Amino acid sequence: MPDHTYHTRLFSSPLTQRISALSTHPRRGILAALITGIASIAAAGLAGCATVDVTVPGSIAAPAAFSEAPAEGAPAAQDLAQWWQNWNDPELTRRVTETLAANLDLRVAQARVAEARAIGQVAESALYPTLSAQARAARGVADLRSPPGLPDTSPGLEGHLAGLTVAWEVDVFGARRSDALAAAAVALSAQERLRGTRLLIAADVAENYLAARGLQRRLQQLDRSTEIVAQLLSYTRARYAAGQALSYDVDRVSEQLGALQAQRPVLTSQISIRERRLALLAGQVPQAAAALSPPPAFFVPASPAGQVPSDVIERRPDVRAMAALVSAQAARLGSAKAERFPRFYLTFLGQDGRLHVDGLPALSGTGGLVGVGVQLPIFTAGRVQAGIDAGDARLQAAQAEYNQTVLRTLEEVDNAYSQRSSLDQRGARLADVAATAQRNSQNATRLYEGGRRTLQDVLDARIGALQRADELIQTQTAQALAAVQLYRALGGAWPGDPESARH
């Protein structure tokens, strides 16, 4: 967002076209003539329209590249708009799609957009004339007392009056135009915040879903290890009954089995917490949360390559929302500066009426009034300048917030790339370590059965294999969550989201 000058300029008004239909009525020739006069005056005013310049402070220049982005990875054209589909997991895709259609936070954001657009229409309406009509009718009886010797009379009275009023502030110096532009920018900011909310909701669903999948895989690994240790306990008890093992050996294996079994309730509880969170995000009652299906094999998409800072800044909804707010503050400052100049008003009043009294000729007539007004601020005790100063301060603050948002974006992307890269490396190494620990455990069991290792060796190897496998699963889960964070940092669902398609 480089330095630029914001101009508030009055656009060509279609006043003449909007009111030309009034001249078609045969009894309103005088009204049409007077309204046409207003249009002519307005056109003359528009011909001399002025501009109010507002200089917006410069912003931070984006670097050429991210320092932590990989040289190779997923192609740059990888789907960022529907990034959750890159997992090739139908259940994840279904849950994200259903949540984006039913999430209550999104409905709130959508209502905010509708509100902002309506406010924008209100502000834009101030650019055009207002036309109103009024009509009155009356009927009655007059009780007239005649002089002595003459009968009293009660003549009937009836009458009607109809009129047309046109009022317009000719926005010569762009104050109302600036107000309309500010409202439109606020509506655009609300739209970008809606897109940002969609991105956050989709990421929240993906994070909870992938975390739950990781917990499921940990639970599966725990159950397998528990089954193996339970078999070892049965084997040890048989040896103890045959006099080939000590009670210490039985107690030791029983202790390890109990420790493994104690971990299960914690994992199942954490899975239930994630399931309830997913239900809440989808606008459902948490107590009716649907259970997850068995977890698929672990998979995480490659990190998107080819992303450059300038593209990310243009794509991020929060950055775009702040840029729109900067434009809104610039427009408001333009409106405040326009308050230093005169304001011009055009008014027209046309009326047609009739009055009839029994026994007398009816009276009728048509009349019109055209008014031109000007309001020039001469002494305001510093109010106008204070409004300008306040608007300038708000613009400076908005620009600073925009710059801070850009800096935070650049930080988040590189942090996400770095986190993902380190977890990928850790996951690759832990996969080798876990495979080695599993072989160790199997070898220790065979050697123990052959009398060449102690029971303690078997237990240590088994517990070590479980710990290495659990560390690997947790790291893989962290890889998946880091991938979600990276997609979110890159801006996610833009520009191919449904909101963009509709607008």
Automatic annotation (TrEMBL):
Q: Does the keyword Chloroplast apply?
A: no
Q: Which organism is it from?
A: Cupriavidus basilensis
Q: Which GO terms describe its cellular component?
A: plasma membrane
Q: Which UniProt keywords apply?
A: Lipoprotein, Membrane, Palmitate, Transmembrane, Transmembrane beta strand
- What is the protein's membrane topology class? Lipid-anchor
InterPro entries listed in its UniProt record: MdtP/NodT-like, OMP_efflux
Full protein name: RND efflux system, outer membrane lipoprotein, NodT family
Q: Which family does it belong to?
A: Belongs to the outer membrane factor (OMF) (TC 1.B.17) family.
Does the UniProt entry include the keyword Hydrolase? no
Q: Which superkingdom? A: Bacteria
Gene Ontology MF term list: efflux transmembrane transporter activity
Q: What is its main location?
A: membrane
Its subcellular locations are:
Cell membrane
